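Format notes (please read before filing issues)

Several people have asked whether sequences and structure tokens are stored in separate files. They are not. Every record keeps both together, in the order shown below: the sequence lines, then the token lines. Line labels are part of the format and must not be stripped during preprocessing.
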Amino acid sequence: SMKQPKSGKKLLNRYFCIMLAVTLLCLLLCGQYAIHIAKSELQYCNEAALELYDNGLSYIMAQLQGFNEDLYASNMDFSSLAQSQEKLPADKMMMYSLNLRQLMQNRTEDITAIFAFDQDDNVYYYCMGSAFMGGRVTPAHIETMQSIRDYWLNQSNANMLKWVTYETQHRTLLMNTTCRNGLYICSMVDLEAYSEQYSSFDRQENI
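Then the structure lines:
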């Protein structure tokens, strides 16, 4: 009769251990499930962010390429400047140049630049955004523009209106160029500036 309390206590301890094991197992399974859900959500967020990044960049590139195509196809200022410069009166050349420059300025965004130049250096100007290659004209910046001019002067017409990558010392640029009679319009996107801008927007949305 004295053994019954011990037997009851042993049964209670066994029951407690079983419940504890079941609880721990449930916690373990729930933890694994929570980790799986968190990983899935993180992957989804990363994929969504990457898609937004690609879509934003694709939109900017499409806008610039459309600008170049429209200039080549139907812009009077561009086609007039593309004639022999000697045939243009000075006042006409100035008017066409100012109109073209204003058009370029209107199409330039923070991370882009549009560069107009010709073979004879009669036309040489560019408009750039506040974040394009740092947003300041420096000797290194001028040297890069000259290198870009030299690059395109040595390209065939087959490479026009196609996106190409151009590496500078600290930047990667995407370039799309059109040309008529030796007059070039080169539209560019600064990939580093775009990434920085996108990261900044992403951080602001998460605050």
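For reference, the curators noted about this record: The beta strands are 112-118, 124-128, 164-167, 172-180, 183-190. The mean pLDDT is 81.
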